[in-house]
Write a structure and sequence with these properties.
By secondary structure, the chain is mostly helical. 69% of the residues lie in helices and 0% in strands. It is built from 13 helices and no strands. Helix 3 (55-81) runs antiparallel to helix 4, helix 5 packs across helix 13 and helix 10 (229-239) packs antiparallel against helix 11. The longest helix has 30 residues, at 296-325.
Length: 326
């Protein structure tokens, strides 16, 4: 590790901390075993919440969430306001250290909140709100990256170029809300889906803490964060006994093949091998599952690209209208 720059050393130490924090959640099991739950009531029901919420459980869940939100928004505001002082993207700045220290402090606070009060924002909000917030986050990433890597096999992203400066300048505020809201939506449970979800959230929080550094814009790191939703989605579906796990597996894999991998500079043969593995896996799974279910592969891409077209088109229309009015 001696040849690694201090910036990347800090990054890998932070990732190692995220791994340790994820394993630390397992130590909550004795506290979790004491928490009763109501029977599962369907897709719109969030199972992991108190059956007897009180003022303390709500005050800590919402209070700690708001403190975390204000902290991160303040961090972004300060970094944007002083961006000229952060021109050296190859090193850690004070704002990055504050972001990392704050991130792990709020991990500890969430651990404490689960152990003592066991509740989250799910008690008062829809289970779909957390999912939708992350979906829009991923779509905004597609919009930001589209002018650089395209939308379809390296092409088709130029029409979003006019939005890129605005998205780059303000995306952090939405991303911080989506990630932190989702983070406090759940108590720290020990199911495989929760553990992977919290680890993924820790990584997203770390990404935010490295604002205005080369880590924050490293294409391999950012595409890893994009594609990791595949692992989480498949794991949650399998643990829940849902038969639609191939929708998450092949849907997000299709997003990687159609769009995400084209920003990595991979050679044509490498991309061809990835596509061949994808096609072979589809054949193996659906020759047994039934070809009538093949539409599962396109559900997630259709939703994501459809929402992107709507949001991107609306944003461009509003921007042009504002310019004409000015």
């Amino acid at each position: 590790m001696s040849n690694i720059s201090p910036l990347w050393k800090a990054f890998w130490i932070a990732v190692a901390g995220a791994v340790l924090a994820t394993f630390a959640i397992l130590t909550l099991q004795p506290f979790l075993d004491r928490v009763p739950h109501l029977p599962d009531q369907g897709a719109a029901w969030y199972y992991w919440k108190r059956i007897d919420p009180d003022w303390a459980s709500r005050a800590t869940a919402w209070g700690f969430y708001l403190a975390h939100q204000i902290f991160f928004w303040g961090l972004i505001w300060w970094a944007v306001r002083h961006r000229d002082e952060l021109r050296d993207r190859g090193r850690m700045h004070a704002v990055n250290w504050i972001g990392l220290i704050g991130t792990f402090a709020f991990i500890g606070l969430h651990y404490l909140q689960t152990a003592v009060w066991y509740d989250g924002l799910a008690q008062d909000t829809s289970v779909f709100s957390s999912q939708i917030s992350v979906i829009f986050l991923l779509i905004i990433v597609l919009m930001i990256e589209a002018p650089r890597r395209g939308l379809f096999f390296g092409y088709g992203g130029g029409w979003l170029k006019t939005l890129r400066p605005m998205l780059i300048r303000y995306h952090g505020y939405y991303f911080a809300w989506a990630v932190i809201y989702t983070y406090w939506f759940h108590p720290m449970e020990t199911t495989p889906g929760h553990l992977l979800g919290f680890f993924y959230t820790f990584l997203l929080l770390i990404q935010g803490a490295f604002v205005f550094t080369r880590v924050h814009t490293n294409k391999w790191w950012t595409v890893t964060l994009e594609a990791s939703v595949l692992v989480h989605g498949v794991t949650v579906a399998l643990v829940a006994g849902q038969e639609i796990w191939p929708m998450f597996l092949f849907g997000f894999a299709a997003m990687f093949i159609v769009t995400q991998m084209h920003g990595l500079g991979l050679s044509r043969p490498v991309r061809g091998v990835i596509l061949a593995v994808f096609a072979g896996s589809v054949y193996v799974v659906y020759s047994e599952r039934g070809w009538a279910q093949l539409n599962e592969i396109i559900r997630i891409p259709v939703i994501d690209y459809g929402l992107l077209a709507i949001l991107g088109g609306l944003a461009i229309w509003l921007t042009r209208r504002r310019r004409k009015a000015a």
